[in-house]
Structures are given as structure tokens and as C-alpha cells.
Write a structure and sequence with these properties.
Structural class: alpha/beta
Number of domains: 2
Order of helices and strands: EEEHHEHEHEHEHEHEEHEEHHEEHEEHEH
Strand order of the largest sheet: 4-10-9-8-7-5-6
CATH architecture of the largest domain: 3-Layer(aba) Sandwich
Length: 404
């Protein structure tokens, strides 16, 4: 297990909620931030606050260097070919919208098809619905089984001459399923189809390697990776990014502008119009440093041990049903309690100082598949401990007691 002292790196965890020491288990929604990340934001505004790329003065040069250093850190972190393949966006949602509008939309004609899966977050459903509606294309859904595992063998039967794009999540936010994304990418490429992977729930839990996965596009959000909100990453193969039109127009995404013609900048700047979230990018680099220092393999092992322990303990409680029993899971435990609405579960557990998520988790189709209104979801991170799991299990028992 990871050293319990790691918890002391996260100031938000050092507080009491309703008179009880906080146990934070809502990490799939957003993770807490270590002191080093918070200080990185503070230091930027105190010492190097300046706009980037366009200034020749010292502050601008320092800010630009830190900003671009993060781009290089990310390229190394996910093992991409070049830092030029790293685009800074507001989060995974914006990354998916960027690809939908700038790459896929120009490809689509009437009756063309896009394939996504039944377990996608709304962010990987709605943008594809929007472009399909506009282009009169079709959205096809790869189904899953009762364990919450994709029926990957059915994908090849779904692909045909009209299939123009595939987009799948790497890890399900509501079920914890780790999808066989490398196999899915290989199947797409075998049929000469480009594919995007939503990695918002993956990069903080498991090693992610672009050269091994082979995806054409991959995205994730900083705030789930111990970094601030409002910053995220789109990875794209450079040859694809080069041929795509810009997502937005404005400063920094241009080489020259006249009233007659604008010449666009090269990637990645072509997709980063206007003043970006400079402090967020710099702090994202600090968060990656923090993760690398611990080791993503160590994090994966630690979280897997917590998940297995929590699953074993909660399974002993009568009336509990775990939603999502995939053989290969990340640290997400979604469940229902017979006769108690998940929102009531979340409320009672909060009174015990335990923070979980209760709801549909932006995966309405998943809830429809299981014929349930919502789930209670505990999700674990590097700072969680077996003691946290014990408190979580006790608060579940307390909830059942309250409702008789």
C-alpha cells in the first residue's frame, strides 16, 4: 500500500464534516489537490503572472517556458511522439467537441455512421448526436453485458462501408470497467477507421501509452488528475491535427491576419486561440510531477487493493447490489441498497463525514440498461486508505440502520 502520509499532502482532507473526520470518496468526479499544485497556481500569480508567447519581457518568457514545459511533460507522461501532438483545452468535454467538429464533421455525409458504446459519459454521446443530427448521419451503439463489459466481438459486425469514426471511453466513470481499448483501436484501424479514446477516468489510475494504444485521438481532464479545474488535454496524431481546421479564431492561433486572408498557426497553437488557462497548465505539470514521483504503477496497485477490499467488505452487507462487476476494473464501486434511494444514501453518509457521489453520473443510458434510477458511487484515489474503506462500510451499515 502507498504510504498513509500521502494524505497529509492534501489540505482539503484535513477537516471535519458534520463533526466527523472527512473521508473523501468522490474522486471519479474530481480529485483533491496537493499542496504543490495549489502552490504552483499561487506562485504563478505572485511571481510570473504574464501572458505567454507574445511577450519579449522576462515575466512573459518565464511563464511561456513553464507553460510549454508542461506540454513536454504530458507528451512524456503518455508517451506520444511529440509535444506538438498535445493540445490544451478546458477538459475532456471540450476535447471531444473539438474532434467532433473539426475532424469528424467535415467527413460526414447523409447515412454515414459513428460508433460509440453503451457505457459512455454524456460528454462522449451528445457531441456525436449533434454532428449526426446536422449531417443526417447515424449513431450506432456497441452494447455491454450485465457485468458492465463491452461486447467487443460485436464491433466488427457493426462496422461497414458507412462507418466513419469510433469513439470509446478507456475507463467507465459509473462502472469502473477498464475497456480493452488497444484491441478496439486495432479493430478500428484494421477497417481503416479513425478512433478517439476518452481517457478522463484512465490516466490517473493506470499507465497510458500512446505508442502502445495507437489511438488517433485521446483526451483527459486535469481536475481528475490532481490538477485544477478548467484545464484538459487533447492528444492527436500530428498528421491529423495538421489537416484539421481550427476550432476557434483569435489571437495566437494565427501566423498573419489581413482583412483579405488569415494564415493559421501550426499545431498545437492552431487550436489554442486566445489567452489560455496559464496557471492551470503550469499546475497540471506540477500534478504530473507529483504522480510520477509516486509512480503510476504504484498508484494502480494501491487503488486496486482498496477496490478489492471495499468490494469484499460491502458484499457482506445484506441488501447491497454492486452495479458493474467487470473482471478488469479501476477504483470505482457503484452500488444500490434495497429500498433506499441513492440520494438518501449519499445524504446519510455525508452526515457520517463520508463523501460519495449519488446519481446517474452523466451516464443515463447505463442506468436505463440496469433499470435503476441512480447509484451510490465510491471512488478511490492515492490518498485513500483501508481505514477510509472501513469508515465507508460502517457508514453504509449506518444508512441501512437509519432506514430500518
Amino acid at each position: 500500500m502507498i504510504d498513509r502520509k500521502i494524505k497529509s499532502d492534501f489540505p482539503t482532507l484535513d477537516q471535519k464534516i458534520n463533526g466527523k473526520q472527512l473521508v473523501y470518496l468522490d474522486n471519479a468526479a474530481t480529485t483533491q489537490k496537493p499542496y504543490t499544485v495549489i502552490e504552483a497556481v499561487d506562485k504563478y500569480y505572485k511571481n510570473t503572472n504574464s501572458n505567454i508567447h507574445r511577450g519579449v519581457h522576462t515575466l512573459s518568457q518565464k511563464a511561456t517556458e513553464k507553460y510549454e514545459n508542461t506540454r513536454l511533460k504530458i507528451a512524456n507522461f503518455i508517451n506520444s511522439d511529440s509535444e506538438k501532438e498535445i493540445i490544451f483545452v478546458r477538459g475532456a468535454t471540450e476535447a471531444i467537441n473539438l474532434v467532433a467538429n473539426c475532424y469528424v464533421r467535415p467527413l460526414l455525409n447523409s447515412n454515414d455512421e459513428i460508433i460509440i458504446s453503451q457505457m459512455e459519459h454524456h460528454a462522449n454521446i451528445v457531441p456525436w448526436q449533434m454532428v449526426c443530427e446536422e449531417k443526417k448521419a447515424k449513431l450506432k451503439i456497441l452494447p455491454m453485458n450485465q457485468n458492465g463489459e463491452l461486447l467487443v466481438d460485436e464491433l466488427e459486425n457493426m462496422i461497414n462501408k458507412n462507418t466513419k469514426f469510433i469513439s470509446m471511453n478507456h475507463v467507465s466513470n459509473s462502472l469502473g470497467t477498464i475497456n480493452p481499448i488497444k484491441k478496439i483501436v486495432q479493430l478500428a484501424h484494421k477497417n481503416k477507421i479513425k478512433i478517439m479514446v476518452d481517457g478522463a477516468q484512465a490516466v490517473q489510475h493506470i499507465p497510458v501509452n500512446m505508442k502502445e494504444i495507437g489511438a488517433d485521438f485521446y483526451c483527459f481532464s486535469g481536475h481528475k488528475l490532481y490538477a485544477p479545474t478548467g484545464i484538459g488535454v487533447l492528444y492527436g496524431k500530428k498528421e491529423l491535427l495538421d489537416e484539421m481546421p481550427p476550432y476557434q479564431g483569435g489571437g495566437d492561433m494565427i501566423k498573419s491576419v489581413t482583412f483579405e486572408k488569415t494564415v493559421y498557426n501550426e499545431v498545437p497553437q492552431k487550436f489554442e486561440a486566445g489567452t489560455p488557462n496559464i496557471s492551470g497548465v503550469i499546475a497540471l505539470g506540477t500534478a504530473i510531477d507529483y504522480i510520477i514521483n509516486i509512480g503510476i504503477e504504484n498508484i494502480a496497485k494501491h487503488e486496486d487493493e482498496l477496490l478489492k477490499y471495499a468490494t469484499k467488505e460491502i458484499s457482506k452487507i445484506k441488501g447491497i447490489k454492486i452495479i458493474g462487476n467487470a473482471q478488469n476494473k479501476a477504483s470505482v464501486l457503484s452500488f444500490t441498497i434495497e429500498g433506499i434511494h441513492p440520494h438518501d444514501v449519499g445524504t446519510i453518509m455525508d452526515s457520517e463525514g463520508v463523501a460519495i457521489r449519488a446519481g446517474k453520473h452523466c451516464t443515463d443510458p447505463v442506468m436505463d440498461f440496469y433499470c435503476i434510477p441512480a447509484t451510490a458511487r465510491a471512488s478511490f484515489a492515492i490518498y485513500n486508505t483501508k481505514n477510509d474503506v472501513d469508515k465507508f462500510v460502517n457508514s453504509v451499515k449506518k444508512t441501512i440502520e437509519v432506514f430500518g
